[in-house]
Design a protein that fits this description.
By secondary structure, this protein is an alpha/beta fold. Helix content is 32%, strand content 21%. The protein has eleven helices and 18 strands. α10 (265-278) links the parallel β12 (251-258) and β13. The chain binds iron/sulfur cluster (SF4). Iron/sulfur cluster is lined by residues 102, 104-106, 109, 111-112, 146-147, 230.
């Protein structure tokens, strides 16, 4: 088994170590890759029996490790892997990675020190991969990177070619080109830079899913400065209002960190008031935990653990109320869903794994269906096929 790890925050490190343990218990033969793989000694200490540990973005090393323990039989046909490559998600959706690394230096994050500065993939290469995935039956592409809205900055938005057309390597051209593939296109890790506004009309026209995953992390300008966040809080509420004016159906997902060093009760209240006003659709919240090597570890005024946890609970309680009201507003509507498994689908507002689902009877994975929503529970919707 191959375990892809994350070293972004301590919770993810714990989760990655637990996943390695689970894989070892189930299978006994495990290769570890991903961000946390950069800390080979750390993983080997926790799980000495893993077969190999490779760093992030190192497919050749992963494949070498796999072939060292599972030699490839000599068969000329095995080299003819499908043009869409090998992917581990279900057949009907796939992640499309458009760049690697990040030019920011958020004080709580060690990704740039592990993965380096932003390196955008050439637009023709990204589009070819997307087109091959769609040809292979993918119905939904999830665009990911560390900073999707910065796509092309490192190559000065150089012009590439797509189907013989000159196409600049930038966020909006990528979105326009992807929209021509006529599948669901979902954007993750988008920062609220001004140029992001240009993609909202594409959402209103139904060319890109009306869904934005924007990791705000906080709302207090003081804490955002300490976090060294890009595109910080100023005018964010106005921007969100503008997005909703252009595309009333837009679903906004975000993540936040509470209990960051120096976060006062006033900063936290500011965050709660932002949450109340922003009315986001889906929200994740972490209590801050220091990550080895992060600059934020040197900041004074650490928030006591009990305060962090209580702030997280207060935050989640408020958001649970907002999310429940948002879900309730969908009762009685007929919604299009993409079916992940019989009886379980997702609407345009729900990304796989992280958002809610729609439960109903029937259907097969990869099909689209119309579902009439009868009721809403805390995170999910329930209904019947229309
Ligand atoms: S934007 Fe900040 S949090 Fe995200 S990868 Fe870059 S440095 Fe880390």
């Amino acid at each position: 088994m191959i375990v892809n790890t994350c070293g972004f925050i301590d919770a993810a490190v714990d989760e990655s170590l637990a996943a390695i343990g689970e894989a070892l218990a189930r299978n006994g033969k495990v290769v570890v890759t991903g961000c946390l793989g950069a800390k080979q000694g750390f993983i080997k200490k926790a799980h000495p029996s893993v077969l190999a540990v490779t760093g992030p973005h190192d497919t050749p090393a992963v494949m070498d490790a796999v072939h060292a323990y599972l030699p490839k039989p000599h068969d000329p046909y095995t080299d003819l892997i499908p043009p869409q490559g090998v992917k581990l998600t279900p057949r009907h959706y796939a992640y499309l990675k458009i760049s690697e690394g990040c030019n920011h230096r958020c004080s709580f994050c060690i990704i740039p020190s592990m993965r380096g500065d932003l390196v955008s993939r050439p637009i023709d290469e990204v589009m070819l991969e997307a087109e091959n995935l769609v040809r292979a039956g993918v119905k939904e592409l999830l665009v990911i990177s560390q900073d999707t809205s910065a796509y092309g900055v490192d190559v000065k938005y150089q012009t590439g070619f797509w189907h013989g057309r000159p196409t600049k390597t930038n966020f909006i051209n990528l979105c326009r080109s992807l929209s021509e593939l006529n599948v669901w296109i979902r954007l993750h890790y988008v920062y609220p830079y001004p140029h992001v506004d240009e993609v909202i009309p594409l959402m209103a026209e139904g060319k890109i899913l009306p869904y934005l995953d924007v990791p705000f992390q906080h709302a207090s300008p003081r804490i955002l400065r300490l976090m060294k966040r890009p595109a910080s809080a100023e005018k964010v509420l106005g921007r969100i209002a503008g997005w909703r004016e252009t595309c009333p159906d837009i679903a906004i997902r975000s993540t936040f960190i509470v209990g960051f060093p120096g976060e006062s009760e006033a900063d936290f209240s500011h965050l709660l008031s932002f949450l109340e006003q922003a009315q986001l659709d889906r929200v994740g919240c972490f209590a801050y935990s220091p990550v080895e090597g992060a600059a934020a570890n040197d900041l004074p005024e650490a928030v006591p653990e009990a305060v962090k946890q209580s702030r997280r609970e207060r935050f989640m309680k408020l958001q649970a109320k907002i999310s429940a009201e948002k879900l309730k507003a969908r009762v009685g509507k007929k919604l299009k869903v993409l079916i992940d498994a019989p009886g379980v689908g997702r609407t345009m507002a729900d990304a796989p794994e992280i958002d809610g689902v729609v439960r109903f009877k029937g259907g097969s994975a990869g099909e689209f269906a119309e579902v009439l929503i009868d009721r809403a529970s805390e995170h999910d919707l329930h209904g019947r096929r229309a």
